[in-house]
Write a structure and sequence with these properties.
Elements (H helix, E strand, L loop, with lengths): L6 H4 L1 H7 L3 H10 L2 E4 L7 E4 L2 H8 L5 E2 L32 H9 L5 H4 L3 H16 L4 E5 L4 H14 L6 H12 L12 H24 L5 H6 L2 E2 L2 E2 L2 H32 L1 H9 L4 H12 L4 E6 L3 E3 L2 E3 L4 E5 H4 L34 H18 E6 L4 E2 L8 E3 L1 E6 L4
Parallel strand pairs: 2-10
Antiparallel strand pairs: 1-2, 3-7, 4-14, 5-6, 7-10, 8-9, 11-14, 12-13
Helix pairs in contact: 7-8, 7-16, 8-12, 9-10, 9-12, 10-12, 12-13, 12-14, 12-16, 14-16
This protein binds protoporphyrin IX containing FE.
Protoporphyrin IX containing FE binds next to α12 and α16.
């Protein structure tokens, strides 16, 4: 019996119906950790499912390159958004040495010290969003996946990127169309026309901000990007715009989906939530376990730049390898009881933020944002329960829930 054709590993509709393919990953890790997949819609690829193999690939950015794209290629070229006209070279799909120069543009802003400038905005967002829940007379019903989980990262990223409040709804719509293209509630398809439209709408939103921050730099992330230099020269308009796009898009859906899945995990594992209520200093450990548990960035692709090997398996130049971070984060050789949500997990060497060369630039930012909202909820929620079937987004790249209906009782702030 074939273990998998590979379709269920990539097909957005499969994720929409059932969520990530944990059973298949488990079999692949045990029996075929470097597995050749040929599926009708996508170019063939190697599925890499073990933690150790993924780290080994990520440590060799010269051999396993990102420059040929980070998502699987459709066989129909018109479906490939990281190819063709309008494609931008951004930090996430470049390779050393170019990658290191591009990374230097924004990385100083993402250090813990610089991020302190965002603390007030992060706490304000968490406080206001939880206050809004309390407005309904201390109890109510809400869809946590399309409510708080969306609004919190949206507000924070909009602040950092200088998007005015009235632009937030637009940026959210664009992000959904980009990342959940196949989802009937959130996306609007993958046609080339839709891709062009998306590009134009992103440009209309960000170009005025870039012009403003060039004229009046403030030191915020928007200003750093607008005035960024690579090898001593100002970035061109396409590079600057590409950086805006990657920061917003890499930051929003990822954090939103981690939060939605995290809320579900907390409701289903009340002991973990109670432990953080009793001792808020445990929230960093909680956030790490949420990151592992949800693995909202499900995979990244690399392409072999020359003939090589992974775990004894020969890989030919030009072949694609898909690193399934979601599988690595359930790898039983690294995590004891990987299918248990465990606040006490230590160490927690998850790969939710990737590894090595392309390690997530926004990791500290995401951690702070997640901690703020989890701590605020732990301080105020008296009771919450899931009151309907959670639903998954039809997306295999950035994965998570779109529907998490919850009844809650909440304390007014004292
Ligand atoms: C829970 C939230 C997040 C998750 C799970 C996540 C995950 C990841 C992963 C797995 C990568 C590695 C890509 C690769 O292997 O090629 C990555 C890269 C990146 N992330 Fe995040 N991310 C999150 C939040 C953020 C935020 C909030 C920002 C910015 C505000 C951000 C910005 C970036 C950037 C710029 C890169 C590219 C880094 C490079 O190529 O050197 N991410 N992220």
């Amino acid at each position: 019996m074939t273990m998998t054709t590979g379709l269920e590993l990539l097909d957005p509709n499969v994720y929409g119906e059932k969520g990530p393919p944990h059973e298949t990953w488990k079999r692949l890790r045990a029996e075929s950790p470097v597995h050749w997949c040929e599926v009708p819609d996508f170019e063939p690829f190697w599925a890499i499912t073990r933690h150790e193999d993924i780290r080994s690939i990520a440590r060799q950015p010269d051999v396993f390159i990102s420059g040929k794209g980070i998502t699987p290629l459709y066989r129909d070229p018109a479906m490939n958004r990281n190819e063709g006209p309008g494609a931008m070279r951004v930090v996430i799909n470049t390779d050393p040495p170019e990658h290191r120069e591009l990374r230097k543009v924004a990385s100083p802003w993402f250090t813990s010290r610089a991020l302190k400038s965002m603390d007030a905005a992060i706490l304000k967002s968490a406080r206001e969003l939880v206050d809004n829940l309390a407005k309904e007379g201390g109890e109510g019903e809400t869809n946590l996946a399309s409510g708080i989980a969306v609004s919190h990262p949206l507000r924070i990223l909009s602040t950092a990127l200088g998007v005015p409040e009235e632009g937030e709804a637009k940026i959210l719509e664009l992000s959904n169309r980009l990342f959940a293209a196949e989802d009937e509630d959130l996306g609007s398809g993958r046609s080339p026309e839709e891709f062009e439209r998306l590009g134009r709408e992103f440009i209309e939103l960000f170009l005025p901000i870039i012009a403003d921050r060039r004229a009046n730099p403030t030191g915020d992330l928007a200003s750093i990007l607008a005035n960024g230099q690579v090898n001593g020269e100002a970035m061109g308009p396409a590079e600057t715009l590409g950086y805006y796009l990657i920061v917003f898009n890499a930051g929003h859906d990822t954090t939103k989906n981690a939060l939605a899945g995290g809320f579900r995990a907390l409701i289903e594992n009340p002991a973990a939530f109670d432990a953080v209520k009793a001792d808020p200093t445990r929230s960093p450990a909680l956030v790490e376990e949420i990151l592992r548990w949800t693995s909202s960035v499900n995979y990244m692709k690399r392409t072999a730049a020359r003939d090589t090997e992974i775990n004894g398996q020969k890989i030919k130049e030009g072949e694609a390898v898909m690193m399934f971070y979601g599988s690595a984060n359930r790898d039983e050789s690294v995590f004891e009881n990987p299918y248990t949500f465990d606040l006490d997990r230590s160490p927690n060497n998850h790969l939710a933020f990737g590894y090595a060369e392309h390690f997530c630039m926004g990791a500290q930012f995401a951690r702070r944002s997640m901690r703020a909202i989890v701590e605020e909820l732990a301080r105020r929620i008296d009771h919450w329960e899931i009151i309907g079937e959670p639903e998954w987004i039809s997306s295999s790249f950035v994965v998570g829930l779109k529907h998490l209906p919850v009844y809650y009782r909440i304390r007014k702030d004292s």
